[in-house]
Amino acid sequence: MKKLLLGTLVAGLLVSSVSFASPLSKIEAGKGKIDASLSFGSGLKIDGDKYTQDLGGDTRYRLGATYGVSDKLALDYLYASHEGDHSSSVQSHQVNLIYQFTPNFDLFGGYVYNKGKYYGDSQSTSGYQVGAIGKIGLNERTNAWAKFGIGNTITQYEIGLGYDITKNWEANLFYNDTKYKDFDHNESFKTHSINLGATYKF
After folding, report:
1. Phi and psi at residue 167, in whole multiples of 5°?
2. pLDDT value at position 176?
3. For residue 182, what pLDDT is reported?
4. For position 22, what pLDDT does the model report?
5. Closest to 82 in 3D by CA, of 200, 5, 194
6. Which domains are present in the chain?
7. CA proximity to 5, closest of 146, 172, 191
8. What's the pLDDT at 14?
């Protein structure tokens, strides 16, 4: 039921035709944004062929930047970090190209590099992902978005709200759920977190 409700929300955001006031609502050459957020209430879990272990979760962070390389096309970078018990952690670097079809709908695709650690044993995976972003304006200053991405080493979804404090600064609150996969022994790391952050638009 939870997944059905989330899917309905994502679909609603993706097909909405309401104008969008979030950063890079209109991708233009030379325009961009920088994002930073802290992750609260996060969780980290490892799945293997014969076991699943909850590794807890510590407050961590996410950093990102988006830059318009031309009208409707932008280069996007994201770094996400999660830590848990037993010297466990997972970090992800994601580099994507975003193409804006409408002010409310973007498609993206790119490269993913993940590094996971469990009881001090470190391993890494790399691959690709493709996905979509939907966005709507709720009023003059508040906007909402949904994001979904899938690839050979990652599956993720995200829903969030942003509020324009000034012309250049936005506060945002969002939930992210990600599976980092294709590690040795068919292991995968699963994370979820509530994130509070800020965006600077230039």
Report:
1. -60, -35
2. 96
3. 92
4. 43
5. 194
6. 2-201 (2.40.128.90)
7. 146
8. 36
Distance between the two ends of the chain, CA-based, in angstroms? Answer: 40
User: Is 82 exposed, middle or buried, given 0-12, 13-18 or 19+ CB atoms closer than 10 A?
Assistant: buried
Distance of CA 118 to the CA centre of its chain: 23
Q: What is the mean pLDDT of each run of 10 residues along the chain (202 residues)?
A: 42 35 70 93 87 85 95 96 91 97 95 93 95 93 95 97 95 96 91 95 92
Is residue 189 within 8 A of residue 116, CB to CB? The reply is yes
CA 59 vs. chain centroid, Å, equals 16
Task: Note the pLDDT of residue 50.
Answer: 80
Q: Are 125 and 93 within 8 A, CB to CB?
A: no
Q: What is the pLDDT of residue 24?
A: 63
Residue carrying structure tokens 């879990």: 45
Residue 88 exposure: Cα atoms within 13 Å on the Cβ side: 20
- Note the residue count of the chain: 202
Q: Residues 142, 166: contact at Cβ < 8 Å?
A: no
Strands (E), 22-141: 32-47, 52-54, 60-70, 73-84, 88-102, 105-118, 121-137
Q: What's residue 96's pLDDT?
A: 98
The rounded Cα 1 to chain-centroid distance in angstroms is 23
Nearest to 15 by CA among 110, 132, 131, 156: 132
